[in-house]
Amino acid sequence: MAHIHRPRREQKSLRRGLTRFEARLPSSVDGIGFHAQITATVHTEPPYPQSADELAAAIRATLRKAAADVSKECDPADLATTRDVCGRHLAGRRLLPTTPPVAFDAKAEIDLLPDDQAAVNALLAALRRQATADAVRRQQTGSLARELADPAAVLTRWLDQQPDRWGSPPETKAIKEIATVFAQYRPERERTVDHAALELIRDFLASFQDPPQKRMVYEVLAAGMHHAHRPDHAARAEALLDEHEPADAPESGV
Q1: Does residue 76 contact residue 34 with C-beta atoms inside 8 Å?
Q2: Any idea which fold 2-112 has?
Q3: Is 135 in a helix, a strand, or coil?
Q4: Are the C-beta atoms of residues 25 and 101 closer than 8 Å to each other?
């Protein structure tokens, strides 16, 4: 009878060692970690190749490492995602490399201890302050750049700063160069390859001052769009040709 009940005792002892055992898991932020309570389920029937205590210790070590491997990429401010990611990872069945192998999977309850939660709150508050300061700075920079893209605004600013030098303003060339620099400013969201391409096309079109030349460029552009099977774009390019039609010559005698 004792021999019959021994496997049950092993299973019960193993279950105790694998129920809600604790783990300290790293997060993507140094110094802040997750608190996990992991419960493993063994799917291999006894007899086991090791004692229940040895087997439980090996499974706990395996699961702690498995959980840490994914939690270290998780944001401590996003517990919901951390729980999903770790839950999916631990739910997969694993084999302990014993002879014979022991199969198991697990589930986890993940939270932040009070000190870690306080650290997350402090970090979020600091990030919000920094984000606000950055947004204000970007807004001020953009506003200043739009204003000073006009040479007249550059001169006005200079005169405001140098009120006693009305008789010796900077050279027109220098003022225009400064305005050109500000005109080239683009917010970060516009610093993409597509925006750079638009700037290139705009500069290219602006390099043709003669109306017949501009008309030729738009004709080539429309032809290229037709060739690329973009008839709607080609039609819009052809519509722009009307803007470059030479003005009708005045009738004689008028």
Answers
A1: yes
A2: Tetrahydropterin Synthase; Chain A (3.30.479)
A3: helix
A4: no
What region does 253 belong to: left with phi over 0, alpha with psi -120 to 50, or beta? Answer: left
Residue 72, token pair as written in the block = 């270290």
Structure tokens at 176: 């225009």
* CA 52 to chain CA centroid, nearest Å: 46
One-letter amino acid for residue 201 of the chain? I
- pLDDT for residue 145 is more than 90: no
Residues of the chain with CATH 3.30.479: 2-112
Q: Which of 76-80, 111-115, 178-182 has the lowest mean pLDDT?
A: 178-182
Q: How confident is the model at residue 236 (pLDDT cuts 50, 70, 90)?
A: confident
